[in-house]
């Protein structure tokens, strides 16, 4: 997730303070990706350096606010109009963990899958309850929750597929003298 692009997009409507950007980002994403305020100001400093935003204020008793430049506006338009690359697999710790457990012959891979299934099911139930409490005006949060639910649903289907493959392989290996897990 690009914090840079997120902050730029929040500046489209007009100048904002750093803490205001943090708060609006977290509200829009349902607080799924909380931002450290230092991270916000570091990113804003880079955006000023790259001439994507300008600083205003910041004198004796005034807070700095940040305004989008035309270059920043062009960058936001390009970000929103460019699809995310779907042909590059994202690094996923669970996928790597399961693949390495299998490749290195770790025992109890099925237990690992079951523990993850339990975890994912619990989180899925929690997210479903959270979605039910949303107000109709919370559209951006609903979209974020929908994505999280869909990913967890996909993860659960993948865990089922992994287990089925392992059981099929273990059945085959145990009849042919191969290594079992």
Describe this structure in words.
The chain is mainly alpha-helical. The chain folds into 2 domains: 3-81, Orthogonal Bundle (Arc Repressor Mutant, subunit A); 93-176. Helix content is 65%, strand content 7%. It has helices at 3-10, 18-28, 37-49, 70-81, 93-103, 109-132, 139-176; strands at 16-17, 53-57, 64-68. The protein has a 3-stranded antiparallel sheet. A hairpin with a 6-residue loop joins β2 and β3. α2 (18-28) crosses α3 and α6 (109-132) runs antiparallel to α7. The longest helix has 38 residues, at 139-176. The radius of gyration is 23 Å and the shape is elongated. Residues 175-181 have low confidence and may be disordered.
What is the average of the pLDDT values? 89
Percentage of β-strand residues: 5-15%
Structural class: mainly alpha
**Order of secondary-structure elements:** HEHHEEHHHH
Radius of gyration, in angstroms, nearest whole number: 23 Å
Shape: elongated
- The tally of strands reads 3
Share of helical residues: 55-70%
Total individual domains: 2
Give the number of helices.
7
As an assembly, this protein is: single chain
């Amino acid at each position: 997730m690009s914090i840079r692009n997120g902050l730029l997009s929040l500046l489209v409507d007009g100048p904002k303070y750093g803490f205001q950007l943090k708060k609006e980002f977290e509200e829009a994403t349902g607080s799924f990706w909380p931002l450290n305020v230092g991270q916000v100001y570091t990113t804003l400093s880079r955006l000023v350096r790259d001439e994507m935003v300008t600083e205003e204020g910041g004198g004796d008793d005034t807070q700095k606010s940040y305004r989008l430049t035309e270059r920043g506006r062009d960058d936001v338009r390009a970000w929103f109009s460019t699809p995310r690359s779907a042909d590059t697999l994202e690094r996923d710790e669970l996928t790597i963990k399961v693949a390495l457990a299998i490749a290195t012959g770790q025992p109890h891979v099925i237990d690992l899958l079951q523990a993850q299934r339990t975890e994912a099911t619990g989180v899925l139930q929690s997210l479903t309850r959270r979605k039910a409490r949303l107000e109709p005006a919370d559209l951006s949060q609903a979209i974020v929750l929908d994505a999280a639910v869909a990913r967890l649903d996909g993860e659960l289907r993948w865990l089922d597929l992994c287990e089925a493959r392992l059981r099929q392989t273990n059945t085959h290996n145990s009849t042919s003298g191969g290594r079992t897990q």
